[in-house]
Amino acid sequence: MSRLPEKDRRTNNPPVDYERIFHPRRIAIIGVSSEESGAGFGTAILKSITAMGYAGEMIPVNPKGGTINQLTIYKNVEDIPGEIDFAIIAVAARYVPDVLESCRKKGAAGAEIISSGFSELNTREGNELEQQVKEIAAKGIRVVGPNCFGIYCPASGLTLLPGPDLSRESGPVAFLAQSGGMSIDFAHAGKWMGIRFSKMVSFGNGADLRETDFLRYFKDDPETKVISMYVEGIRDGELFFREIKAAAAEKPVIVFKGGLSSAGARAVASHTASMGGSRVIWKSILRQVNATQVYDHLEMAQACLAFALLPPKVFANITVVGGGGAIGVAACDLAEMYGMDIPPLADSLQKRIDGYLPKPGSSATNPIDVANPYVPPSYLKEVLIAAAEDQRIDLQIIVSLLHHYKSVAQMFNKTVAEITPYKELAQAVRDAVDKTGKPVIAVLSNPKRCVDDLDIMEMVALTRKEFVDRGIPVFDELHDAIRALAHVNAYYGGKSHE
Amino acid sequence: MPITEANLMNKEKARKIIRDVYREGRQTLSEYESKQVLAAYDIPVTREILVTHQSDLEKAVQEIGFPLVMKGCTPEIAHKTEKGLVHMDIRTVREAKKVGREMMSKITGFQGGILIQEMIQGRRELVMGMTRDAQFGPCVMFGLGGIFTEILNDVAFRHAPLSKSEAFDMMQDIRGHKILEDVRGMAAANRQILADMLIKLSLIGIDISEIQEIDLNPVIICDSRPVVVDALLVLKNG
Fold first, then answer.
1. d(CA B101, CA B78)
2. Using CA atoms, how far apart are residues A433 and A427, in angstroms rounded to an integer?
3. How far is residue A18's CA from residue A217's CA, in Å, rounded to a whole number?
């Protein structure tokens, strides 16, 4: 881009070379202890990045020298031969400004400062140190942190602290947050839920780069299709409004806002001010910019999953395929609550579907009641294919109660994972999606979660993996699936009337 | 919105009112002053005349016409209704004079006078406003008005400035948005005018940074046209 981003024009800070920050080839890690002298944060991050299989060069730094993982520890940043792209700083707060300045002189495009002891303490010393960090950042090394868990980038192998076991598989979802804990939790949740990340940033105190910078970057980042964020406070409301509006016009932005306490005791004279507490203002602002507001971590993850794996459109009419009348009734209630329709299928299609369903007790109307949990995947595939032929149908949800296979397993003296045709089921669903071009969501409800049922929980986890590996979104409950779908509908519905 | 000479003049008129209020050491505008600021931005307000002497009352009453409303108008007295300073549905000159005498005695010693105001008839009351949010700056509010504002808490906000589509979207955002439709023999509210009012409120928020809060409550839908019946403007700490 030829034009400098707004904040940079305002502060005269240099533009950010995000490429070298997220995909560095040479990283200095400052504050790494040698093999024999125990493990601090610097050591933990070096070992984590090594475990992730980072392909670039890591250069540990510690005044005491020594070796770690067969790498020589340099005593000073100045001693490192050649340039570095990025620095990870984990030394005591009072040493941070000098180290940061040295990294700048070494040509680093950016640094993440893991260390705490800055403005979060709200002490004079802490505030002064953070001010020094800002001043150095303004000279050309852009800073993530301090007091953060840093960057996770599956493509390069950069990982959060402590995240040696995060996925290396890249995907469409970006995440940004002040909170390190929220970041690492989401990274782990994404791994089993099937959410693949493009980039994740915990920016802590946000002394330099923060929510508005990353919103702007992710908006134009071709690797990112969905932006998610956890936010407590923002530095500049007007700027935030502009950036999130611009980002949400480009791609879905999912916001989990923490700290929505009411204006409550605020002494104000008018209704307007007293009613404009944080909760209602944030809700209104996020609606105005067509961002997706979620209220907890799980809802955020589920929304990300739906946005990441479903095509960009409104799903007005759906089918629900599952065993048991109550599931169908619940599905209809949920669909109505979230503004979707479950229309009865055309007669001819119902007839065709009926041919694949066990008798008695089944219903081919829509919701399609398959009556029992043992209908073979090959039949379910035909049901999905037939139902999709109804022109109105935009998407299908299949609810599988696989825990029932436990009793079959006991009869045949096998494990539940051996007896359950979960791979066949995942493949059948994938085939139906490929054949019809209409997406399917799988709901793997499992009421059996006692210690007696660890085999079932394992089987369900394996099932989820088979679906996720085939690009089929999986939810635990029907409600989760339909709520996530409603978020997708609200976004693309809002976009179309802009 | 194009910046025309008229716009600039209106803005200047609004600023002058605010300067005068500051000069008097006040932070709250009277209803009359508040509405003058609104009128400067072409927001539809009640026709009204401020009378400071009993001798001017009859002329003003004749000009506004019956039925009318009389309000004690002073920035120093809040809760006018509770203090017996609002009289609705006055239908004769004699009645007006009697009410005028009573009111004058209640507001003696205060700044201001008696507001002679056309009586807007309509069963639907809305609220509009502007607040300067600590994080986002000027935000405009829309919702159900009158006593329902506090009871139902059915309001929506938008960040200023407001586009036309955002103004329409905002009206649709409240739970009770059907009140704007043609219900129970009442005509549908004129959403074009409502949207225009919201947009202008957002412009006031942007133009005049001294204003901290604006509260228009009620805005009554009279047939289909919205009119601001009561208004309160609060300034920032001088």
1. 20
2. 10
3. 8
User: Which residues does residue B133 pair with via DSSP β-bridges, in sequence order?
Assistant: B137
Alpha-carbon torsion (B221, B227, B232, B238), positive or negative: positive
Strand runs (DSSP E) across A453-496, as ranges? 474-475
Measured between CB atoms, which of A268, A270, A281 is closest to B139?
A281
Residue of B nearest to A237 (CA): B136
Q: Mean pLDDT throughout A127-156?
A: 96
> DSSP secondary-structure letter at A451?
G
Closest to B158 measured CA to CA, from B128, B181, B178, B180: B128
Q: What is the residue-wise DSSP string for A300-328? A: HHHHHHHHHHS-SS---BEEEEESSHHHH
For residue A122, with 0-12 CB atoms within 10 Å meaning exposed, 13-18 middle and 19 or more buried, which class applies?
Answer: exposed
Q: Is the peptide bond before A146 cis (omega within 30 degrees of 0)?
A: yes
For the segment A380-399, the average pLDDT, to the nearest whole number, is 97
Residue type for B135, please?
Q
Instruction: Judge whether A151 and A143 are in contact, CB under 8 Å.
Output: no
Q: What is the DSSP letter of A170?
A: E
ipTM associated with this complex: 0.86
The structure tokens listed for B27 are 């932070």
Dump pLDDT digits (tens) for A178-211: 999 999 999 999 999 999 999 999 999 999 999 9
- The closest of A247, A187, A244 to A221, measured between CA atoms, is A247
A170 neighbors A196 (Cβ within 8 angstroms): yes
* Structure confidence by residue, pLDDT tens digits, A210-237: 999 999 999 999 999 999 999 988 888 9
Our CA angle for A144, A236, A294, nearest 5°, is 80
CB of B54 within 8 A of CB of B100? yes
Residue A417: closest CA among A453, A373, A462: A462
Residues 243-302 on A with a CB inside 8 Å of B are: 268-273, 275-276, 278, 280-281, 284-285, 287-288
Contacts of A284 in chain B (CB under 8 A): 139, 156-159, 170, 173
Please give the pLDDT value at position B1: 45
Distance CA B27, CA B36 (A): 16
* DSSP assignments along B135-172, one per residue: TTEEEEEEEE-TTHHHHH--EEEEESS--HHHHHHHHH
* A238 near B CB under 8 A: yes
Q: Chain B: residue nearest A236 by CA?
A: B135
Q: Which two tokens stand for residue A414?
A: 């096998």
Partner-chain contact B157 A276, CB within 8 Å: yes
CB pairs under 8 A between A and B: 88
Q: Do residues A178 and A139 touch, judged by C-beta distance below 8 A?
A: no
Sign (positive or negative) of CA dihedral A480, A482, A487, A492:
positive
Q: Do A270 and B234 touch (CB under 8 A)?
A: yes
Q: What is the pLDDT of residues A43-79, one digit of tens each?
A: 999 999 999 999 999 999 999 999 998 999 999 999 9
Given a contact cutoff of 8 angstroms between Cβ atoms, the answer to whether A362 and A325 are in contact is no
A-chain CB neighbours of B232 within 8 Å are 269-270
Query: Three-state SS for B134?
Result: coil
In the three-class reduction of DSSP (H, G, I as helix; E, B as strand; rest coil), residue A109 is classed as: coil
B149·A275 Cβ contact <8 A:
yes
> Does B149 sit within 8 Å of A287, measured CB to CB?
no
Angle at CA A475, nearest 5°, toward A474 and A479?
145
Give how far B12 is from chain A: nearest CA, Å.
25
